[in-house]
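Exercise 4. Each item below gives a protein and its sequence. For each, produce the structure-token representation.

Item: VOC family protein (Duganella vulcania).
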Amino acid sequence: MKRVTGIGGVFFKSPDPKALSEWYRVHLGVDIGPWGGAAFDWSGPDNPGGKGTTAWNVFKADTDYFAPSTSNFMINYRVADLHGLLAALREEGCRVEDKVDDSEYGKFGWVLDLDGNKVELWEPPAGQ
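Answer:
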């Protein structure tokens, strides 16, 4: 089974997300969208006829979205078969969150790595 196919997003915390996002816009040219983050579009061998996106976003320092991790960052990895991968990770003894989100943006699941960092796994909708 193919596991990670790319990076779907990079997320981190800040005491002042708006100011930090503005710093990235001014100094690094990151095109911050109205939703507060950026989307980097690309194509690749896994989606030659489609469009891939890597999201970038700064969260408030007190967000609980990264919980139970206490890290200041979270990486989102694109995967080909979320449910299959989550089952394999459970069989391998990994700490997998029970919750799975399924929406028009795709399927999302979470696992914690050995250091307790929350890792988001994302199966994009077909064609993305």
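Check: Residues 4-123 form a domain with the 2,3-Dihydroxybiphenyl 1,2-Dioxygenase; domain 1 fold (CATH 3.10.180.10).
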